[in-house]
């Protein structure tokens, strides 16, 4: 008994593609990142206190907000931006005098707005990255499921007592089980890639 089946190749992700967006900050680095955010924020605050009003030292507060990109929580950018905004206000109160008050106030308002916009951008990027991660995870799982199914099917076909021959849509042989080797006296290496009409089916 000869069973000829039409077999196509399954979709597969390119090696390494599934890791492109799944690779984030390891869990053990969480406290390091938090410590870095705290240290940078306090350092900028000290610099702000030592700098005369009118100099945009608040720009450095963007660094801790950007560092929240490597924290899983979507709220982290807003929380850090809010804390840094409070520090900007504190710097306005306690920093040494410099430029005229109206210019200093405008400068600080722009700083708080800049932190808010940066936090929203970081949140947006994290949301898009999360959606891509979910999609890639689903594709990886689907690929693994197909591979397991194909492996089980191939194992069953290899153990079949019948001669089982697989061919693609063009009629080229892509599978030749051990029973087919025994029946036709051709090893699989000799027939794979050949047309059925060149081997077992008359043209």
Key phrases:
single chain; 203 residues; mainly alpha; three-stranded mixed sheet; 6 helices; 3 strands; disordered N terminus
> Low-confidence segments, ≥5 residues, pLDDT <50?
1-26
Mean pLDDT level: 84
Please compute the radius of gyration using only Cα atoms.
32 Å
One letter per element, helices H and strands E, the order comes to: EHHHHEEHH
Which outline best applies? rod-shaped
Structural class: mainly alpha
* Number of DSSP helical runs: 6
Q: Helix content range of the residues, please?
A: 55-70%
- The spatial strand order of the largest sheet comes to 1-2-3
What is the strand tally? 3
Instruction: Report the biggest beta sheet as strand number plus sense, adding barrel if it closes.
Output: 3 strands, mixed
End-to-end distance: 20 Å
Percent of residues in beta strands? 5-15%
How does this model look, in words?
With 203 residues, the protein is mainly alpha-helical. The protein contains 6 helices and 3 strands. The protein has helices at 30-50, 62-67, 76-94, 101-159, 178-184, 188-191, and strands at residues 2-6, 163-167, 173-176. It has a 3-stranded mixed beta sheet. Helix 3 (76-94) runs antiparallel to helix 4. The longest helix has 59 residues, at 101-159. The relative contact order is 0.14. Residues 1-26 have low confidence and may be disordered.
Short recap of the structure:
The protein contains six helices and three strands. Residues about 1-25 have low confidence and may be disordered. The protein has helices at about 30-50, 60-65, 75-95, 100-160, 180-185, 190, and strands at about 1-5, 165, 175.
